Amino acid sequence: MHVNSSEYEANGYEIYCDFNNKNTVKLFNSILKQLDKLDYSINRGLLDTNETPLYVIAKGIKKV
Questions:
Q1: Degrees, nearest 5: CA angle 27-2-11
Q2: Bridge partners for 28 per DSSP
Q3: CA–CA separation, 55 and 10 (whole Å)
Q4: Can you give the residue ranges of every domain in the chain?
Q5: CA quadruple 43, 48, 53, 55: dihedral, nearest 10
Q6: Reported pTM
Q7: CA 32 to CA 28: how far, in whole Å?
Q8: Nearest Cα to 40, choosing from 15, 16, 12, 14?
Q9: In 10 A of CB 18, how many CB atoms?
């Protein structure tokens, strides 16, 4: 899950997940619906990590 914070560009929250995993998609859609009920911010939806790759998700974080 990612929360954007910008006065000029992206604003709101979004969840990145692998759309090939139907159970994960179902879970994250449920989480988005619950967040909508809180009226916290703008729901920017569910994004497929296969189409919008993120380095941290794809490569992981190396400990130093």
A1: 120
A2: none
A3: 19
A4: 2-59
A5: 60
A6: 0.69
A7: 6
A8: 12
A9: 12
pLDDT tens for residues 47-56?
Answer: 998 887 676 6
The predicted-structure confidence for 7-47, as pLDDT tens digits, reads as follows 777 788 889 888 999 999 999 999 999 999 998 888 989 99
pLDDT at 52: 75
Task: Read off φ and ψ for residue 57, nearest 5 degrees.
Answer: -70, -45
Four-residue CA torsion sign, 38, 44, 45, 47: negative
For residue 16, which phi and psi values (nearest 5 degrees)?
-100, 130
Query: Residue 57 has what pLDDT?
Result: 62
